[in-house]
Write a structure and sequence with these properties.
The structure is a single chain. Helices cover about 45% and strands about 10% of the residues. By secondary structure, the protein is mostly helical. The protein folds into 2 domains: about 80 residues, no CATH class; about 100 residues. The chain has a two-stranded parallel ribbon. A two-stranded antiparallel sheet has the order 3-4. The protein is globular, with a radius of gyration of 23 Å. The chain starts with a strand and ends with a strand.
Length: about 240
Amino acid sequence: MINNCILTGALPSELHRCRHRLSSCVRDLREWCASRRLQLNASKTELIWFGSRSSLSRLKPEDRTLEIGATVVKPTDVVRDLGVLFDSELTMKRHVSKTVSTCFYHLRRLRQLRRHVDIDTMKQLVSAFIFSRLDYCNAVLYGLPQSTIGPLPRVQNAAAWVTLGLSPRDHVRLALKELHWLPVAHRIQYKVALVMFMVHDNRCPIYLSESVQPVSSNPVCQRLRSASSLDYTVPRT
């Protein structure tokens, strides 16, 4: 059995072509599985359309589905890919909400251990159970409004209180400085900056280096002063 998650999106004018290409891709995948004595589980296949709310509302119900053999796959509003929850409008609110809920669950358990371990041990536990979730794939949160990522700093503040055994009335900024913890927004920026440094230094996978290109390589910008900079252009998606 293979649990196949399909992520797709298209302009309304390209809807039929996109559905045809997607159906062909799934058909080839079924044939590949069958040749290796595997079976594609259509009942576990998920389909999602990405777009703005107005664009998605223009899609007809019959155009939103996908046929896989005798099974008709209906679209869903949220899918999970590598542990990240993507909603149809790419607001990432569901992913942030799930991350916050899971982190507070573990913080309540860690609070019960605070009296039995020292600060160094507690810092390691918080790093393993909390920051591993806050930092996981946090680059997808870059550029989101503060109203969306606002719950994440509250998790970090609660983790600082638990680690140092403080009360909610204590100032959390001094606690974060004492623990040498970057704020959540800066952790996201650091992750993106680190990825771009790896791209610039040719120490990244090929699929990352091919997703961006230097401004100097663009023939339109070669005569501009920006061509001598180290800036990169990202294709519009």
